[in-house]
Specification:
The protein has 111 residues and is mainly alpha-helical. The chain has one domain: Methane Monooxygenase Hydroxylase, Chain G, domain 1 (Up-down Bundle). It contains 4 helices and no strands. Helix 2 packs antiparallel against helix 4. It is elongated, with a radius of gyration of 18 Å.
Length: 111
């Protein structure tokens, strides 16, 4: 997804789905659902929020940090403040850190 202005409707649709997931958490708590059911609902909501954040960050990196047509110092900013790499590498790192499944703390590392 590119720009929040251009993709406003798509982003707002995602926000509305997240609102529904938050409401589902509240309903689960009110209905005295088991802890595992509540945790599963919370995890789904967290995943949706992280996915939304990754999309917005991707648009920001692509169009405001590294697009030289918009900002003449874009590449200088990326190279000096972050590290010398491509926008795609930055975006991949953002998606991995926000969307990739995480290993529970203390769990053995898979080889």
């Amino acid at each position: 997804m590119a720009d929040t202005k251009k993709h406003k409707e798509e982003l707002l649709n995602r926000v509305n789905r997240i609102k529904g997931q938050v409401n589902a958490i509240e309903k689960a708590l009110l209905a005295k659902m088991t802890a595992s059911g509540v945790l599963q609902t919370i995890a789904a909501c967290r995943g949706a929020i992280n996915g939304l954040m990754a999309e917005v960050l991707e648009g920001h990196v692509r169009f405001h940090v590294v697009d030289p047509r918009r900002h003449s110092k874009a590449y200088t900013i990326l190279e000096s403040v972050y590290w010398p790499c491509s926008a795609n590498q930055v975006i991949a790192a953002v998606h991995f850190s926000l969307v990739a499944p995480r290993r529970p703390r203390g769990a053995p590392q898979q080889i």
